[in-house]
Amino acid sequence: MAGTVSTQRNLQAAFWAIDGVPLVVATSLLALKFFSKGNDVVAAGFLVFAIGENVILVGPATTLAGSVPSLAAGAALWPAALLLTSIPGEFALWVRLPGIIGFNPSKSSRRM
């Protein structure tokens, strides 16, 4: 969030990297955990999220306007990741239900 309020481009990139890299690491580790447990669909969901976040991390290397396509491409993967992690019964229903409700690819693409 600090990258959003910063006006200096180099600080924005640093703050966004500090924000994004732990998400990539965490979701990659979760993907490995669920894969080793034999739940391939949930593992794939976390892997898709990690890939989407990686695509977003490319954006700060360019100008602010130039980072929009990578943000859109990465955010387009989030609904698929939500669905893949929410449909199987691995998590409690109260955790899965918001993910299923939040999955709306047409709504997601209109925001970009």
Percentage beta strand: under 5%
The radius of gyration computed from the alpha-carbon positions, rounded to a whole number of angstroms, is: 15 Å
- Helix/strand/pairing class, anyone? mainly alpha
- Tell me the total number of β-strands: 0
* Helical content (DSSP H or I, runs of 4+): over 70%
Q: List the helices and strands in order.
A: HHHHHH
Q: Determine the N-to-C terminus distance.
A: 19 Å
| Biggest sheet overview | none
- What does the overall shape look like? elongated
**Low confidence ranges:** none
The averaged pLDDT comes out at 84
Count of helical stretches: 6
In brief:
The protein is mainly α and 112 residues long. Helix content is 78%, strand content 0%.
